[in-house]
Amino acid sequence: MMAIVDLAGSPGAVATVVVSRPALLERLGGPARVTVVAAPAGSGKTVLLRSWLDQAGLDGRAAWVPAGHGERDPQRLWVSVADALRQTSAGAELVRTASAAPDLDAWSLVEQLLADLAPLEDRLWLVIDDVHELDPEALRQLELLVLRAPPQLRFVLAARHDVRLGLHRLRLEGELAEIRATDLKFTLAEARQLLAAAGVELPDPVLRLLWERTEGWAAGLRLAALALAGHPDPARFAAEFSGTDRTVADYLLAEVLDRQPEPVLRLLLRTSVLDRVNGDLARLLTGDEGGERILQDLEQAGSFVISLGTDRSWFRYHQMFAGLLQLELRRTMPGEVAGLHSAAAEWLATHGFGVEAIRHAQAAEDWDQAARMLADHWPGLYLDGQAATIHELLAGFPAGLVSSDAGLAAVAAADQLAQGSLATAERYLHLGARASTSGPEARRGQLRLLLEVVSLLLAGQRGNLPGVAEEVQRLAAAAGDTGAVPPGLTEDLRALALISLGSAEFWAAGEDAGRYLQAGLTVARRIHRPYLEFIGLAHQSAADFYESFERSAETAKAAVELGRLHGWTNEPAFGVACMLVGGVLVFRGQLDEAEQWVQRAERTLRAETHPVLGLSIRTLRGDLELARGQHSEALGAFQAAERLAEQFVAPHHTVHGPQALMVHALVRLGETDRAGQVLAGLSEQDRENAEIRIATAALLLAQGDPRAAHVALAPVLDDPDPVYWRVWLALAYVLEAAAREALGEQAAAGTALERALDLAEPDGAVLAFLMYPAPSLLDRHARHRTAHTSLLAEILDRLSGTQPAPPARPRPLLDALSESELRVLRYLPTNLNAPEIARELFVSPNTVKTHIRNLYAKLGTHGRTDAVERARSLGLLAPSGARHSSRHERETAHLT
Question: 54 and 135: one domain?
Answer without folding.
Answer: yes
